[in-house]
Design goal:
Neuraminidase; 6-stranded mixed β-sheet; 5-stranded antiparallel β-sheet; 5 helices; 36% strand; globular
Length: 470
Amino acid sequence: MKNHLILVVLCLTMAMPLGASANALTGDVNADGVRNIEDVTTLIDYLLSNDASLINLENADIDNDHVISVADVTEMIDLLLNLQPPTITDGVEYDVINGIGIKNLWIQDREHSPEIWTNQPYCNTNARTAVLNDGFIYIARSNANVVVVGTDTLTQSVIYKVDATNGELIETLPLTLNGEIYGGAVLSANSIGVDNFGHLYLTSYTSAIAIEWPIYLVDKESGEMSLVASLDKGEVICRCDYIDVMGDLTREQAECNIMAAGASSEYIYRWHADQGSDFEGGFNGDPYLAIEDFYPKTVANWGYMPIVKMIEQPSNKESRYSGEQFFVDGYYTAPAIYNKSGNLIESFENVYPELHPWDVGANGVCEFKFGGRTFVAYVLAQYLGYDVYSGHNRACQVNICELGEGNTLGNMQHCWMVPDALGTITDGGTRIECINAEHGYDQYGNEEITLFIYKCYNGMAVYKIGPNVQ
């Protein structure tokens, strides 16, 4: 009864101090970048305690009457009910190919749901990469929040956690390192991913003068980061933007291999660690290797912001996580497969012309297995990829093909192109389009694939692939 009386008095008498806020977002009472039920709880706690340190006063005045009261709690609940976006799909009915179907679960993008997508905090050119893991999507954004600590004003990078089943933003993880705010540096949260054992990792972009490249593990609940290793580039120092990890970053359960490609160079990087050991150069002790063969053959380096994607070996092989073969996709090049010696194993040279990327300026590729068959998903175009065969603009779209006999690119069969469109807005030159495939089972015990596509500033979508998908 006493608490209720206090609440009534506060609601009737408490005037809200006004002032500009660096994190102004009506309804974001606790200033964590997300509006959810936690803001309702925080608002009620404030009304009961009168502790202004709990809230952002500007954001808490939901009804904009300059008084924080129980009316704001009611308005906050109504706001949350109206915030839940409807489930929007790409609206395409895809063909069933060799007994396998595909359907879009949801899409948030500039083409199908611009009013939803453009109001999301991860619709930002600093939110460059994302990854799918165990039913959730993790999106990294550099320097998202402004935080005042004493007399210092700091910027903090964050990770947004999204429900992969419906696209709902669940929470924002503010990143910390050794208990202190992490961020401030250019593209401090540039490349996010998950290793084969579910460990979430993060790296910054690394410049052409940086000798070492730190890689961190991230706690999925708190956002606290821990340094795994500072990767030594050796004698060849290139800018690197994105990283790929295979195996176990902790090296507790398996070996680990890390790879990247040097921007506007012919170099690739590789670091290797046996189970229980430290990282060392992955090319006979050196961390770098020069590549001589490219596709198209007219180019001599990767161009801007290339990506490496290692290919997992069969699960019954000891070399499962060795990354013996890998794709490299650069601004000037189409995806091509190399081995650890730097030899070009396969490229799009022998692929049917209608399956070639129409714009090699976007970098992204993913190989996955399903029902004993191997598929590859790769980016068709970045923003302007006009398809002369269909007459449509292949903007930020992905081709999904089944590899040919012997798991070769040359005889691969086209299955689907998804989505029908995603967006045509420049993201400031991130070049990458993230493609993730996660293996699972449907309610009947049949294999299925969850495919996630993310293009910075343009949109994201989740698809299901399987025998019972229609």
